[in-house]
């Protein structure tokens, strides 16, 4: 503090001297020629600027010291306070305020340890807030505290009088649960607490299964009148079911019976994979595809493909045998294509067929390239590149590092490889303020569960955190290299599952990206992924959702996106890359299914073109500024000259929009109505929607009108005008 005060006095003295210079400009007339033609005013301006920078730096450092002292006092007070005495809202406000100050200090000051330590302390406490909030709930009754006490035993006394410090000991209890069932590491403290607090209710795990297991949506839990409940079946997001060979009794701690579920899951899938291989030569392919679980179909088809290729390589007539493999793949593609275009409402079957078709197209291209390049050796690098590099790295206990622009398939390639190998892959989106402690928790989950993790946009993490992460990954690699059963990570001894893996993706195309430290680079094998094959991806995806004219339509779609990206104005929110293309195709697939449900017979090429045009307009027009709409419509008309799409009328929505606008006291404006309808359509097609525009452009108004309209929409068809007006008045009272 003495140094800061000294510097402050020096800065004040310099400011006085500058002011003196301004009052005595005539004293510098003789020296002006020696100042490289700078005037006194310019010299004064430079000096003032430098002094201003010094004053700003000193101000930020004073704020840093004050914030450090304030946080230390708050932290000590909170730790020693009883739960009933803590104002949770005040705590949340103070934590948010500290994080805001830290953000300003990081931007305004050079990197220094003091800011980093303050940030780590605040972030660490912030992670405990959900527990403090949950257990500080005044509605908790003695029976709730008794239930929590029973869960954790008598090591910690829990009631409304316990302190925050005691709650941190409760966190250690959760850590024990995570060690027993490592997949709990992929849940937040609040999520795990919700499970433990209702451990007697096995259904409490259902909302969190998708974070612990790959695509397990729900467990079928049979509750008997006598005896404990039993887990009998696994259910996927698509509705596919796997009956467990042995019922899992739910009569112990939640982590114990989940371990049994995990083991049974592995056992039943091994059994089905063996059965799938045995049935391959005894069932017609079209029957085999639909009579086995989806993961088995995809895995076994790849096993057979690999075996066929390797057998052809060791044959004395390698080329002829490989040509037979190619012919077999083409035959399977034809059969899958016939199944794809059938009108099926089974989501599971559609998903499996779409994935299988994509895989077989890839297999076809691989074999075709092998024949063209006369490659008949399984060890040749051309046998596949990205996956071969990644699996080769994993064999050496290294990680992989796909690098390239956004939308080139980096993350999807990793996820697909994990699925092909039957591994649970957790995708973690990295960010600049990522704390190494969070990563340490993640690594503890990975090494014990044997899962994979894909750290997306890894080079967005700060250099300081990357240095610590490098040490953590090096420790894991050393344990795998020495075939250790147990090793020390983050200060605790844990067992290691050798199938765990760390893979990262990087994109240098944005600001704020950093180079990896050399000790971290050496732990990953790089894979460059630059430009995806847009037309092939579009063709395969279109065919997988049932478009027979996929080849022609994919070419037109790619040309449309290329012309739009070149001829339309450059806006920050415009995107004509692969993600935009796939969004359009997925929307087209939904429209095609709806179209087929409303009509009989097969769709012609013109029908499919109309569906594509409608999907393109619905997914693209809402994001264009007014000046680009007409130009885009012209491009669309040039590419699809034979088809004209009439405007889709949404009569029910338009009716309630007029009512909603009237209730809100606004004017009926056709252009605004059109934007609201576009907004509604985007909400139906996308997970999230961003309203973009200048201040006063009507963004909030559009949202308010649609919100009111959707409240009215369910009753539009069943109520009379008078009843509707009565409902509207009631809604106004509650809004």
TL;DR of this structure?
The protein contains 27 helices and ten strands. The protein has 735 residues and is mainly alpha-helical. Helix 16 (436-449) packs parallel to helix 17 (463-481), helix 19 runs parallel beside helix 21 (578-598) and helix 24 (651-663) packs across helix 26 (699-712).
Features:
735 residues, three-stranded antiparallel beta sheet, 27 helices, three-stranded parallel beta sheet, Methane Monooxygenase Hydroxylase, Chain G, domain 1, disordered C terminus, 5 domains, Rossmann fold, mainly alpha, single chain, globular
Describe the structure.
The protein is mostly helical. It has five domains: 2-135; 280-383, Up-down Bundle (Methane Monooxygenase Hydroxylase, Chain G, domain 1); 411-528, P-loop containing nucleotide triphosphate hydrolases (Rossmann fold), CATH 3.40.50; 538-639, Helicase, Ruva Protein, domain 3 (Orthogonal Bundle), CATH 1.10.8.710; 651-734, no CATH class. The chain contains 27 helices and ten strands. It has helices at residues 2-23, 40-80, 88-108, 113-135, 142-152, 164-180, 189-197, 209-212, 254-279, 285-290, 294-313, 318-340, 347-372, 386-395, 410-420, 436-449, 463-481, 518-521, 534-544, 550-567, 578-598, 605-620, 626-639, 651-663, 670-685, 699-712, 721-734; strands at residues 216-222, 230-236, 241-249, 399-403, 425-429, 452-456, 486-489, 492-495, 501-504, 524-528. The strands form four sheets. Strands 1-2-3 form a three-stranded antiparallel sheet. Strands 5-6-9 form a three-stranded parallel sheet, with helices on one face. A hairpin with a 4-residue loop joins β2 and β3 (241-249). α11 (294-313) packs parallel to α13. It starts with a helix and ends with a helix. Mean pLDDT is 83; it is low at 718-735.
């Amino acid at each position: 503090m003495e140094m800061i005060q000294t510097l402050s006095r020096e800065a004040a003295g310099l400011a006085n001297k500058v002011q003196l210079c301004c009052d005595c400009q005539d004293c510098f007339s003789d020296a002006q020629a020696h100042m490289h033609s700078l005037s006194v005013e310019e010299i004064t301006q430079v000096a003032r600027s430098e002094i201003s920078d010094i004053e700003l730096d000193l101000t930020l450092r004073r704020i840093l010291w004050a914030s450090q002292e304030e946080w230390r006092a708050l932290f000590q007070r909170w730790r020693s306070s009883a739960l009933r005495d803590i104002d949770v809202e005040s705590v949340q406000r103070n934590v948010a305020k500290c994080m805001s100050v830290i953000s300003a200090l990081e931007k305004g000051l050079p990197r220094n340890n003091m800011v980093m330590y303050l940030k780590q302390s605040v972030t660490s406490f912030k992670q405990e807030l959900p527990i403090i909030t949950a257990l500080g709930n005044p509605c908790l009754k003695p029976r709730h505290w008794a239930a929590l006490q029973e869960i954790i035993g008598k090591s910690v006394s829990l009631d409304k009088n316990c302190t925050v410090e005691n709650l941190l000991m409760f966190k250690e209890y959760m850590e024990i649960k995570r060690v027993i069932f490592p997949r709990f590491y992929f849940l937040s403290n609040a999520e795990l607490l919700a499970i433990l607090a209702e451990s007697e209710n096995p259904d409490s795990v259902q909302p969190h299964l998708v974070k612990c297991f790959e695509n397990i949506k729900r467990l079928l839990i049979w509750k008997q009148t006598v005896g404990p409940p039993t887990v009998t079946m696994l259910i996927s997001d698509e509705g596919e079911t796997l009956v467990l060979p042995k019922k899992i009794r739910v009569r112990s701690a939640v982590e114990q019976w989940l371990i049994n579920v995990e083991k049974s899951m592995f056992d039943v899938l091994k059994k089905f994979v063996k059965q799938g291989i045995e049935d391959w030569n005894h069932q017609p392919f079209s029957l085999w595809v639909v009579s086995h679980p989806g993961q088995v179909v995809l895995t076994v088809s790849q096993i057979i493909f690999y075996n066929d290729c390797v057998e052809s390589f060791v044959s004395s007539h390698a080329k002829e045998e490989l040509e037979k493999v190619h012919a077999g793949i083409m035959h399977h593609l034809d059969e899958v294509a016939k199944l794809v275009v059938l009108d099926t409402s089974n989501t599971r079957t559609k998903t499996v067929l779409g994935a299988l078709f994509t895989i077989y197209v890839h297999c076809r291209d691989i074999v075709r390239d092998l024949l063209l390049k006369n490659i008949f050796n399984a060890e040749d690098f051309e046998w596949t590149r990205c996956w071969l590099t990644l699996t080769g790295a994993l064999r050496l206990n290294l990680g992989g590092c796909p690098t390239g622009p956004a939308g080139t398939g980096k993350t999807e390639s990793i996820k697909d490889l994990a699925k092909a190998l039957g591994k649970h892959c957790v995708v973690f989106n990295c960010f600049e303020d990522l704390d190494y402690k969070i990563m340490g928790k993640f690594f503890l989950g990975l090494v014990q569960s044997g899962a994979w993790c894909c750290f997306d946009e890894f080079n967005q993490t700060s250099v300081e955190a990357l240095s610590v992460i490098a040490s953590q990954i090096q420790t894991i690699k050393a344990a795998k290299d020495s075939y250790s059963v147990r090793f020390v990570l983050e200060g605790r001894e844990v067992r290691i599952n050798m199938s765990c893996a760390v893979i990262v993706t990087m994109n240098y195309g944005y600001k704020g990206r950093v180079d990896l430290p050399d000790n971290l680079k050496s732990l990953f094998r790089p894979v460059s992924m630059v430009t995806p094959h847009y037309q092939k991806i579009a063709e395969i995806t279109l065919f997988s959702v049932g478009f027979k004219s996929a080849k022609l339509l994919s070419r037109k779609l790619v040309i449309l996106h290329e012309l739009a990206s070149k001829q339309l104005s450059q806006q920050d929110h415009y995107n004509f890359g692969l993600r935009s293309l796939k969004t359009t195709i997925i929307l087209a697939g939904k429209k095609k299914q709806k179209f087929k449900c409303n009509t009989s017979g097969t769709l012609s090429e013109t029908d499919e073109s109309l569906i594509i045009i409608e999907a393109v307009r619905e997914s693209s027009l809402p994001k264009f500024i007014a000046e680009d709409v007409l130009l885009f419509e012209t491009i669309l008309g040039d590419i699809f000259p034979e088809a004209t799409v009439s405007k889709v009328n949404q009569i029910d929505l338009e009716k309630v929009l007029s009512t909603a606008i009237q209730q809100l006291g606004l004017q009926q404006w056709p252009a605004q109505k059109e934007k609201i309808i576009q907004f509604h359509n985007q909400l139906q097609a996308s997970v999230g929607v961003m309203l973009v525009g200048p201040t006063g452009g009507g963004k909030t108004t559009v949202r308010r009108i649609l919100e009111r309209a959707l409240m009215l929409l369910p009753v539009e068809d069943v109520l009379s005008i008078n009843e509707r007006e009565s409902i509207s008045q009631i809604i106004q009272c509650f809004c």
